[in-house]
Fold this sequence. Notes:
Layout: E1 10-13, H1 18-29, E2 34-38, E3 53-56, H2 63-71, E4 75-78, H3 85-90, H4 92-112, E5 117-123, H5 152-171, E6 174-180, E7 182-184, H6 195-205, E8 211-213, E9 219-220, E10 222-224, H7 225-237, E11 242-246, E12 252-253, H8 254-265, E13 272-274, H9 289-295, H10 303-317
Parallel strand pairs: 1-2, 1-4, 2-3, 4-5, 5-6, 6-11, 7-10, 8-13
Antiparallel strand pairs: 9-12
Amino acid sequence: MPFRFADRPVLVTGGAGFIGSHVADRLLEEGCQVHVLDDLSGGVRENVPEGAVFHEVDVRSDAVADLFQEHRFEALCHLAAQMDVRRSVADPQFDAEVNVLGLLNLLEAGRQHGLEKVAFASTGGAIYGEPDPSVNGGVSQPESHPTLPMSPYGITKLVSEHYLRFYNDTYGIEAAALRFGNVYGPRQNPHGEAGVVAIFAQRLLRGEPITINGEGTQTRDYVFVGDVVRAFVAALGRQGSGIFNVGTGIETDVNELFRHINRFTGAGAEERHGPAKPGEQQRSVLDISRTSEVLDWRPEVDVARGLEETVEWFKERE
Ligand code: NAD
């Protein structure tokens, strides 16, 4: 069966970046006409797949409305973002300009020019805060978990989900918000939520020392980019709206991450610990039951295999 959005083009914002470029690849495989919008502030031109039409445009610019008028995008995959948690703390205004006003610029253009569906890159890692012991016994965080973002970045992602709901209710634009865990894989950069993978891989491959913050027992839900893309595209193609956690349901701590990457790089580095980072979130792990059920999706790549593939990619680049 042809993919749901095959008549008019699909716009992928952030398609020169890590996850967005993998989404663009996959949509081309599905037979979609893919346009990529990216200002190349974080992404690179070479990530944009050959079959996609590229627009070097900022999500905040007036050019966005012209593009929607000209191409009448049927669906929008919105992945462009100020995605650096630290930068959002240092400059919350810039974070909100890109993440909130940028989204509104796209949605306003979309509602005037026939946009039918949005799939949005949200975050589970930065929206929920620490697991609440009264939900699921604190074992994992379902979509119904209280939201207590600890950074301006988490706040703008949560606000974005509310705007999407508003545009859905008011203008009938369907919206799927995918709350990612910490996404890692080929093409990732050191600034994202799973930046530690890129930092460890690059440093170990260069023979540079690593200092793990504190005990290294901080956990995250690391999910491989290929699995994220399958969930993202499934949510895009499905009729209706919703919020979906996209992780593995498994916690991995920094020490385990270090040991895997140390092994795959062949660096044989010593495990060294430094002072803990004050205020750092201790645990994050997503409950993926709802996503598995509704989207008929499960992660297929475990953390060891995914890290091996990621390290191979960094090796080729170094
Ligand atoms: P990335 O930096 O590789 O991709 C983001 C892209 O957005 C870049 O290509 C960048 O050039 C582009 N961009 C930034 N500002 C822009 C602007 N003003 N106008 C147009 N383009 C702009 O990051 P990523 O890790 O691929 O993240 C993709 C999305 O997934 C982001 O929305 C991010 O918040 C979200 N997300 C990522 C993770 C993760 O672990 N990587 C976790 C949760 C959510």
